[in-house]
Amino acid sequence: MKYLTEFRDGKLASKLAEQIRRSVTRRWTIMEVCGGQTHSLIRHGIDQILAESVELIHGPGCPVCVTPIELIDRALAIAALPEVTLCSFGDMLRVPGSATDLFAVKSRGADVRVVYSPLDALRLAREQPARQVVFFGVGFETTAPANAMAIVQAKRLGLRNFSMLVSHVLVPPAIEAIAASPTNRVQAFLAAGHVCTVMGIEQYLPLAQRYRLPIVIAGFEPLDLLEAIRRAVVQLEAGRAEVENAYARVVEPRGNRTAQAMLAEVFEPTDRTWRGIGMIPQSGWRLRPAYRDFDAEYRFAVGAIRSTESPLCKSGEVLQGLLKPHQCPAFGQQCTPRTPLGATMVSSEGACAAYFNYGRLVQLGTPPATASTAATAATASAATNPRSSEVAKVTGVGR
Amino acid sequence: MCLAVPGQVQSIEEVDGTRMGKVNFGGIVKEVCLAYVPDLQVGDYTIVHVGFALSKIDEATAQQTLRTFAELGLLDEELATEPEEVPDEVSH
Amino acid sequence: MSELNWANWTCPLPLRDYPQIVLGHGGGGKLSAELVEHLFLPAFGNDTLARLSDAALLHAPPGRLAMTTDSFVVRPLFFPGGCIGDLAVNGTVNDLAVSGAEPLALSVSFILEEGLPLAQLGQIVQAMAEAARAAGVPIVTGDTKVVERGHGDGCYITTTGLGVVGPGVDLGPDRARPGDAVVLSGSIGDHGVAILSVREGLEFETVITSDTAALNGLTTLMLRACPRIRAMRDPTRGGLAATLNELATRSGVGIVIDEDAVPVDAPVRGACELLGLDPLLVANEGKLVAVVPAADAPGLVAAMRTHPLGERACIIGTVTEQWPGLVVVRTALGGQRVVTLPVGEQLPRIC
Predict the structure, then answer these.
(1) Which of B18, C36, C253, C345 is the least crowded, having the fewest Cβ atoms under 10 Å away?
(2) What is the pLDDT along chain A (399 residues), one digit of tens a residue?
(3) Are the C-beta atoms of A363 and C336 separated by less than 8 Å?
(4) Where in the sequence is the domain holding A122, given as residue range(s)?
(5) Cross-chain Cβ contact C270/B1 below 8 Å
(6) Does a structural domain hold residue A392?
(7) What dihedral angle (degrees, nearest 10) is formed by the CA atoms of B53, B58, B64, B69?
(8) Integer-rounded Cα radius of gyration of chain A
(9) Is residue C227 reached through a cis peptide bond, with omega within 30 degrees of 0 on the bond before it?
C-alpha cells in the first residue's frame, strides 16, 4: 500500500535505530501520547529494538481507555432502552462499566451495532425512522470532525431520531497535566500525528517552552515513529526544547482549517474526567447549546448513574506512565483480555492489552542490536491450563 | 488517535450537497467524505479516518523523507566518522 | 466456485407452486417428498441417495474410518465467492482431508426457516452439488426440518463426513517436533474479509472473494510427495493464529513465523488496515497449514505448487523448543511479538 508499506521497511528501520543508538549519551525517557502509536510501537517491537537507548512510556492516548466510567454506564443504560439502537466503534464494546459492558448488553437483546463511521449511524437513522439511533461519539480531536459533520447533517435533515453521546478529549491539556505533575519522568513527548493533522501544531509551542520539553509530532508507521524518536533524542542531547514536525507529509503547521471551523461551530470546551486519572480542566468537548437537541445525555433520562471502579485496577497509573502493565499485580491474573478489570486491557490500543497480546519476550543470546541485554531470563512459562492461550507471565523489556 | 489510512482518490461526486469520493486503499475501494479537504483532486493521496479525508498527502515531502532515511548513515559509513545531524524537514 | 446464476436455475414443477419454504416442507409428507424428488435428488444425483433408505449403505475400503461433523450458520447466506452450501461441503471435506483421510461420503442436514425463498434454497443446493462433484465426494443421505418464521437465519446446514485413512498415514496436532518446518498453502484472510465486506455497515466496493475450496486433491498429492508430514490443519475460524496456537499447545512446542513470509493479497491487506484487523486472525476456507520435517519442506512446497490450490505454497516458520505453547511472530523490524487467540469475535478496530 502506497505511503504505508514504504514506511515499514525493515532495513531503513534498522538504520534509524542504529542512528538513535549511536547518538545517545544516556538513556532518555520519552512518552508517546497516542494509542495508535502505542499499538504500533509494541506490535513492531520498536520498544525492544531501542530498549537500551530510550525508555518508552505509554501515555493516556487511548480515547477508549479514558472515557469516564459514568459515561460508559450511561451508554449501557441508554442501550437497554427498547426503542434505542446504539451505534459504536468496535473498541467500545468490551470496555467494562461498573457492572457490565455493551457486548453483554447486546447479547441480552439490546440493539447495539458496530459501525465504521458516524455517517453509518446517520444513515441508519434515516432508514429506520421508528428507532432512536444513538451514536457513542468517543475520541480525540481526530474523530471530532467526523462527529461534528454527522451532527450538522442531522440538523440539516431535520432528523428527530438521531443523537450522540459525546465524549471527546483533548491532547494538549493531557500533556500539560502530565508535564506539570510532580512525579513526571517524561523528558520528551511524541505528539499524535493525526490529532495534529486536524488541530495543527501551534498549541504545543507554549507547552514545550513552559516545561522545557521537546515535542515531536509523530506519525504511526515504524519509520515515522523511529524518526520522531531520533529527533527527540537529538534535541535532548543538545539541550533543546522545541516543537518539531516529523510527519510533514500529512501535518500542516496550521492544521485543517475547514475542520477546525466545523469543530468551533459544533463543540465547546468543558471540564472532562479522564478514567483512571481524574478531572483535567477544559480537557474535553461537549455539544454547544445550539445542538443540544442532538445530545443523547439530554434526550434520554436514564436516572442517576452511580459508578464504581474495580479496586484492583491500576489503569490510571499505567495511563500516566507511572506503572508498566506487567508491574500491576492483577496483570495476567485477575485481569486479562477475557476478564478485563479496566479499559486499558480491553482496548486494542490500551497499553495493558498491547503488553498482554504482544507478549514481551526477552530473547537469550540475541545480538546487541535487539532487545535488552539486562540479565533477565525469559520467564515465559507455558500456560498452566493447556487449553488457555493466555501467557501467564512474561517479563517486560524496559525497567 | 486513531486509525487513519492512506488512499488514492479515484472519483469525486456531490451527494446531498456533500463532497464525497471513492478512495482506493491498496486495491480496496471505499466511499469517503471529502468535505474537509476541498482541494483534493482525483489522483491525490489522502489520509482517511472513520470515513473522512483529513489531509492531502504531500507526495514530494513523502519521497524526500524516504530518501533522507535511505541516505542516513551512508556518509559516515564511507568516512567512518560520527553521524551528521539530518536537516529539519521543510513543512509546507 | 461458479458465480451465482439466478437466471439458469429453473424451478422444477411442482415446486413452482410454493415459491417459499413452508412448515410442510419439513413435515415428512407430500411437500417433503417433492423437495427430495425434485430438488435434492436431481442435484446430488447418485445411486446411493436415490435409494432413499433410512440409512445409506457404503462400501468402505480397508483402513481406519475418519468421521467429522460441522454446522454452518454463516451470515449472510450468499457472499462473493460462495454461499453457505459450498462452504458446508468444502468445510467438511477439508476436515477429512487434513486428517489424512480419503473422503468417502457426506450427509447433509438442513434446518430451514419458514419463508426462505425456494430460489435461494435451490441456489444453495446447486452450489453444494457442484462442490461435492468437484471434490469427488457424494452426498448420500440427508434430512430437512423447517422451523417457524423468526426462529432461524434462513438456513442452517450440518454436514457430516466419512473418510478412510490408509495405512502408514499418521497425522496429529500433537506430532510437531522442534526443528520442523511450517508450510502454508496460500494467501490468508480472503474468506473473513469477503464475509465482512458484505455485512451491514462495512461495505467495500472492491469484491474480495471467499477462498472456499475442497482441499482433498491437494492433500492427497502432499501425502504422496511427503509421507513424513506430521500434521495438517485448515485455519478456519480464528485464522492462522488459532491453528498455530492449537498445534503449539497440543505438541508442547513453540512456533516462530516470519511476518513477511505469510502471503496476504493486497486488497485483503487494505481491508484489514482499514478495519484494524490482523490478517493472522481472519478466517480462511480453502487453505491449509502443514508441519513437516525441515529437510522435506522444500520438496513438499515444490509439489504443492503444481496444484492450483497450492500455487503460492511457502515455508512460513519453524517449530522450536523455546516458548512451549506459544506462537511468536518475527516482524520485519526484527522485533518479536506473541500471537494469542482472540477473545471471541474479532471486532474491527476503529480508533
Answers:
(1) C345
(2) 889 889 988 889 999 999 999 999 999 999 998 888 988 898 888 988 898 999 998 888 888 888 888 999 999 999 999 999 999 988 788 888 888 889 889 888 899 998 888 999 999 999 999 999 999 999 999 999 999 999 999 999 999 999 999 999 999 999 999 999 888 999 999 999 999 999 999 999 999 999 999 999 999 999 999 999 999 999 999 999 999 999 999 999 999 999 999 999 999 999 998 887 889 999 999 999 999 999 999 999 887 777 888 888 998 888 777 888 888 999 988 898 878 888 888 776 788 887 887 665 433 223 222 222 222 222 232 222 222 223 322 222 222
(3) yes
(4) 64-170+256-299
(5) no
(6) no
(7) -10
(8) 21
(9) no
Cβ(A356)–Cβ(A322) under 8 Å?
A: no
* Span between the terminal Cα atoms of chain B, in Å: 23
**pLDDT recorded at residue C279:** 93
Closest CA to A230 of A49, A374, A371: A49
Beta strand pairing call for A84-88 and A132-139 = parallel
The rounded distance, in Å, linking the Cα atoms of C283 and C191 is 6
Lay out the sheet containing C155-165: strands in order across: C64-72, C155-165, C101-113, C139-147
Q: Is A247 or C347 the better-scoring residue by pLDDT?
A: A247
Half-sphere exposure of B27 (CA within 13 A, CB side): 13
Beta-strand runs (E) in chain A: 28-32, 54-58, 84-88, 111-114, 132-139, 162-169, 188-192, 215-218, 243-245, 267-274, 278-287
Distance CA C326, CA C316 (A): 16
**What angle, 0 to 180 degrees and rounded to 10, lies between the N-to-C axes of helices A10-23 and B59-71?**
60
Looking at the structure of chain A, the number of domains it has is 1
- Where does C15-165 sit in CATH, by number? 3.30.1330.10
| Residues facing A82 on adjacent strands | none
Nearest CA-CA partner of A339 in A94, A77, A74: A94
Antiparallel, parallel or unpaired: β C139-147 and C181-184: unpaired
Cα C198 from Cα C196, distance rounded (Å): 5
For residue C277, is pLDDT > 90? no
Looking at domain C181-338, its CATH architecture is Alpha-Beta Complex (3.90)
Residues of B in contact with A12 (CB under 8 A): 66, 69-70, 72
The Cβ of residue A156 has, within 10 Å, a number of other Cβ atoms equal to 11
Residue A166: give its domain's CATH number.
3.40.50.11740
B50, B57, B88 member nearest A249 (Cβ):
B57
| Architecture in CATH for domain B4-57 | Roll (2.30)
Q: Which residues contact A302 (CB under 8 A, 6 or more apart)?
A: A74, A77, A78, A81
Contacts of C246-250 spanning 24+ positions with Cβ under 8 A: C246/C173, C247/C173, C247/C176, C247/C289, C247/C291, C248/C176, C248/C324, C248/C325, C248/C326, C248/C327, C249/A383, C249/A386, C249/A387, C249/A389, C249/C325, C250/C172, C250/C173, C250/C174
Write down the domain spans for chain C. 15-165, 181-338
Chosen for mutation from C202, C273, C282 (greatest number of chain B CBs closer than 10 Å) is: C273
Q: How far apart are CA B25 and CA C205, in angstroms?
A: 11
Cβ proximity of A168 and A137 under 8 Å: yes
ipTM comes to 0.82
Find the mean pLDDT for residues C57-63: 88
Residue A194 within a domain: no
Spatial distance between the Cα atoms of A107 and A110, rounded to a whole number of angstroms: 7
pLDDT of residue A95: 85
Q: Is A161 on the interface with B (CB under 8 A)?
A: no
Check: pTM over 0.90? Answer yes or no.
no
**Binary contact (C350, A363; C-beta < 8 A):** no
* Cell digits of residue A179: 508535564
CA distance A201 to A109: 45
Question: How close are the terminal C-alpha atoms of chain C, in Å?
Answer: 36
C172 interfaces chain A, CB cutoff of 8 Å: no
